[in-house]
Task: inverse folding
């Protein structure tokens, strides 16, 4: 759907359009959920669009990502097709996972999206292994591993980052610090307070950036990706961001104030900030901005329409599906 | 002319073949390089293939297994070692939640061709955290396959079959078997072993009763059968070789002839593989041929103790199998 190597300065059109696609996709999910058309739960990344888009836009074709339970944005930013992801959520046979995976397991391995993961930090060691493949096959490709602030307190974080450092694997560890792991605030859960600061313990670089600033995310990931690609090993890039919606569908928001949510949304929204900069720096006109927003909305509306037409997931070959 | 080998050397020969014939294959595990592995299985492979393909890892079981999943889905064929099978506990997420599920969960669009080797079983005096037989855990997980060689030849052949399989396969070797010797023919190439996983083997034909075992208990069952023969009892022995999938047909066919069934494994009896083997018989027509209640000879329901006699009492021995067979013949 989108090209790689999108730069928020020189190619704002796909960057802005993608950020809107992510938001519109998830708003569409909310609506479908409210209408009872989805099954189970889901984790929305509304408010975090700059990290997904900023990071993936800095990658090259063929580069890999691993994703998380909050992964719709990663899939869209990595070039996945909203229609196929929507079809998956709508329990269609033509969805990315044929209705076997759902929201938490969207993957498109053929295109380098190694998959969302229902296990917190579950993809971190997988990312290390994918990185090892790039080294052993000398592909020149890299792996970007998205993980949350909560994931940084799993043992897997330590094992994976340590392995990536001693083996100098081409991995960008992309922490989306949205301030909470479910209900637990990052400052309560995380000794030392910073995920990026942990990098020094592994002898690798760690950078902390404003994750709601698509320029900052793009630049940090571009630098980390360049270093990884040229054999310089892994980097932790910690992006400070915020999710506006509840953790999942069961969240009553008892652990934070409405004031806090409003403040992030009204003053630091990644899309509004990007649009403001595009306009004030003369990178795009207001009418261009409006147009790209409409393009994104139309894309998603069409994806929903098409997805609804798809054939339902089938039990026909289900019993034989556990093995290749 | 078959030569002889030890079980450990046969595993090593299989690894050597795989490394030689497929440059996507690499080994990873704790102390598998210059140390040669805790049981010497990978001895010498580092010298032949280098540190890139015979990878010493930090003591990070979770990362070893998860790394293997990531490498497998991006085009390599990792063969990883857990130093003791007990340590898979530290790697259960990548094995059970990732390796076993990705093919299914991602709509059949990815394969996870990895092999996890681990030494299991007791009898070494290593006590409760270094002696377990955990095959039933893995046998319970759709998406995994589980093989347990009992012979020198199978130590090689089952590993080659596991490496050829597009699914994640757990191969549980038995520590007490590593030094055993037996006839061995080294395949010329990995492709020479064409039998897929999941086939049991009748290692001794017999007409009076059927003894089903795997891993070291398949070997002890053969010894027991020799002793029984001296009393005029003609026992058939089946080496299951794989506990997921289980070759129920071979067991049923034998029970149909003998009418008596004895199942044995070192793992504790409750919720063990034996229950599944027996169920495979009683839910088929072979049930009609049973002349007596079935017998199980399994590990005691306690963690493995240290002291020699205590350990011996927990692990089924040849005598226990003989005694159970005698009971079964009188029933
Ligand atoms: C191993 C594991 N433990 C707990 C959970 C339940 N859970 C799912 S997401 C989540 C919070 C994760 O926080 P974070 O990594 O910060 O990601 P975020 O949800 O904030 O995007 C929890 C506790 C899980 N899925 N996996
Ligand atoms: Mg979080």
Result:
């Amino acid at each position: 759907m989108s090209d790689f190597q999108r730069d928020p300065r020189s190619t704002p059109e796909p960057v802005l359009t993608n950020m809107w696609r992510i938001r519109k996709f998830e708003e569409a999910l909310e609506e479908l959920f409210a209408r009872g058309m989805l099954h189970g739960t889901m984790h929305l990344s509304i408010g975090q669009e700059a990290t997904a888009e900023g990071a993936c836009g800095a990658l090259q074709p063929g580069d890999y990502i691993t994703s998380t339970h909050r992964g719709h944005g990663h899939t869209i930013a990595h070039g996945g097709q909203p229609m196929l992801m929507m079809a998956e959520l709508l329990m269609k046979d033509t969805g990315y996972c044929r209705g076997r995976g759902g929201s938490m397991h969207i993957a498109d391995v053929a295109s380098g999206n190694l998959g969302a993961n229902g296990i917190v930090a579950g993809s971190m060691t997988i990312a290390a292994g994918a990185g090892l493949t790039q080294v052993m096959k000398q592909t020149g490709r890299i792996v970007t591993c998205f993980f949350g602030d909560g994931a940084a307190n799993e043992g897997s974080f330590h094992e994976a980052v340590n392995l990536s450092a001693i083996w100098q694997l081409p991995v960008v560890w992309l922490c989306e610090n949205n301030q909470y792991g479910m209900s637990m605030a990052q400052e309560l859960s995380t000794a030392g307070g910073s995920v990026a600061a942990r990098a020094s313990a592994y002898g690798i670089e760690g950078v902390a950036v404003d994750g709601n600033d698509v320029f900052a995310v793009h630049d940090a990931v571009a630098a980390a990706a360049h270093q990884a690609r040229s054999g310089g090993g892994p980097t932790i890039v910690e992006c400070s961001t915020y999710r506006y919606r509840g953790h999942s569908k069961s969240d009553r928001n008892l652990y934070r104030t409405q004031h806090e949510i409003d403040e992030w949304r009204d003053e630091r929204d990644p899309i509004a900030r990007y649009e403001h900069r595009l306009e004030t720096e003369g990178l795009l006109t207001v009418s261009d901005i409006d147009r790209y927003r409409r393009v994104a909305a139309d894309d998603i509306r069409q994806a929903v329409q098409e997805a609804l037409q798809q054939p339902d997931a089938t039990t026909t070959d289900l019993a034989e599906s556990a093995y290749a | 002319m078959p030569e002889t080998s030890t079980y450990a050397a046969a595993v090593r020969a299989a690894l050597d073949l795989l490394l030689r014939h497929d440059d996507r294959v690499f080994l990873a595990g704790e102390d598998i390089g210059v140390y040669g592995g805790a049981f010497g299985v990978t001895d010498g492979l580092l010298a032949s293939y280098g540190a890139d393909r015979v990878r010493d890892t930090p003591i990070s079981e979770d990362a070893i297994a998860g790394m293997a999943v990531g490498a497998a889905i991006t085009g390599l064929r990792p063969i990883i070692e857990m130093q003791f099978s007990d340590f898979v506990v530290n790697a259960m997420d990548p094995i059970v939640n990732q390796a076993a599920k990705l093919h299914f969960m991602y709509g059949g669009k990815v394969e996870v061709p990895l092999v996890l080797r681990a030494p299991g079983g007791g009898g070494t005096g290593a006590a409760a955290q270094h002696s377990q037989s955990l095959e039933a855990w893995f046998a319970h997980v759709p998406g995994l396959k589980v093989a347990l060689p009992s012979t020198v030849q199978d130590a090689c052949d089952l590993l080659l079959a596991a490496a050829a399989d597009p699914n994640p396969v757990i191969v549980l070797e038995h520590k007490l078997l590593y030094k055993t010797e037996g006839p061995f023919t080294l395949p010329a190439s990995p492709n020479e072993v064409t039998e897929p996983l999941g086939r049991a083997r009748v290692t001794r034909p017999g007409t009076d009763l059927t003894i089903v075992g795997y891993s070291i208990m398949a070997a002890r069952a053969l010894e027991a059968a020799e002793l029984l023969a001296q009393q005029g009892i003609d026992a058939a022995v089946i080496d299951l070789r794989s506990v997921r999938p289980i070759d129920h047909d071979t067991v049923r066919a034998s029970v149909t002839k003998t009418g008596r069934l004895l199942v044995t494994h070192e793992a504790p009896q409750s919720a063990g593989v034996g229950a599944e083997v027996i169920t495979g018989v009683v839910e088929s027509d072979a049930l009609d041929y049973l002349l007596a209640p079935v017998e199980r000879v399994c590990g005691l329901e306690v963690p493995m103790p240290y002291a020699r006699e205590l350990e011996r009492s927990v692990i089924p021995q040849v005598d226990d199998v003989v005694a159970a067979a005698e009971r079964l013949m009188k029933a």
